[in-house]
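Support reply, case 0932

Customer input (verbatim):
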Amino acid sequence: MHGVRYPRMMTKTTPPRGVPGHGVRGLAPGKTEGSPGQIPHVSGPDSTPGPLLAAQPEPGERAFATDEVPATWSGDAVQRPPRLLLTLLGDYWWRRTEPLPSAALVALLAEFAVSDSAARAALSRLTRNRLLITSKSGRRTVVRLSERAARILDDGGRQIFSFGRTSQPWDGMWSLVAFSIPERNRAARDSLRKQLRWLGFAPLYDGLWVAPRDRTAEVITQLAELGITTATAFRASTIPGVSPEGLPQRAWDLDGLRVRYDRFIASAGSLRERALAGQVSPVAALIARTRMMDEWRGFPELDPDLPDELLPGAWPRATARELFTTTYDLLGPLAAHRIRQIIARYSPELAVHATHHSSELKMAAEANDELVGSLPMVKSV
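Our regenerated output:
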C-alpha cells in the first residue's frame, strides 16, 4: 500500500466517544464532549484498547473539533437504513461484484447511528427485495449487490448527477398523465405517484399530473410495470388566455423550493470552505458527503427542471449544483479512506477495492494506486 495503513484486526470493537453516529448532536441523540453540534477530538482509535493496539490512532480515525454536519442535513434528513446502505454501496462499491462481509456493512451503518439490529433488518429487507444477494463464505455471511440493484444505482446516478447540468430548450409542450386507480389497488397507486415525482411530474389536479419535459415513454414503461391500465399519457400545450392560476407551473411550490435551495447553498458553501481549509476529517467527510447526496437527491423530485422562460428571476439551481458537485468531489478521497478503514477490520484484501466516483461518474483509483498525498491536506484545529 502506498502509504495507506489500515487498523489492526480486533476481536471486539467499540465506537470512540464523539465519532459521528455515536452520540454527536445532529446525527444521533445523546451527550458529547465539546461544543454543541461539533465533534470533539478523539484520543484513541476506533477499537477497544488491547495489547496489540498502537499508541496512536490510525490516519483518518481522529475526529476534529471543526467537524460538523449542517443541521439542515440531519434529523429528518437521515435516511432509512436500507436506502442509506444502497447510497453507500453506490458511492463506494459502485460496479464491484465482490461480496462484502455482512459485519462490514453493519459497521458502515453504525457510522450513521444505525443499531446492529436495524442494520441487519435492512440487509434482510434488501435481500427480500432482490437488491442484495446473501451467501456463505465459510462461517462468514457475505453480501453483494444484485444485477437489479446495479441497474437501479446506474440509472439513479445518471439522473442525480445530470440534474441541473444544462438548461434544455423547450418546445412549449407539457407531458400529462391522467389516472383513476381504485383504493383496492392502493399500493400500485402510491408506487405510480412516487415514480411520477422522480420523473419530474407534480399533481396539477387530483388524478392529473404534469411535467414540462417529454416523459411519456418513461411513463408508459412505469404503467406497464405496475400493471395499471386505467391511465392515459399525452402531450399538450396551453392556449392563450389561461389565467395565471391555471398555468401548469403552479403545480410546484417555487417559493418554497427557492428557500430550500438557499439553505442548501449556505450549508454546502460552509462545508466546502472547511474542506478546502483541511478542517474536515475522513470520519466527518463520510457523514457529510452522504448527507449532502441525500439532500441533493431530493431536488429532482421537487424541481421539474422548468425551462428558463417559466422560472422566476435569479433561480438558484445552477449555484446549488456547482456547490454540490465541487464539494462532493472534494470530500470523495477522504470519505473513501474512511470506508476502507471500516471494511479493513473484516477484510483487508477487499478494503483496497473501495473507492469513490466523481460527480461525472468517473471512478477514482483504488487504494493500491491512491496515495495518501492525493487526499486533501487535513489538519486538526
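We compared this against your earlier run and they match. Two observations from our side: The two ends are 28 Å apart (CA to CA). The longest helix spans residues 317-344. Please reopen the case if you see a mismatch on your end.
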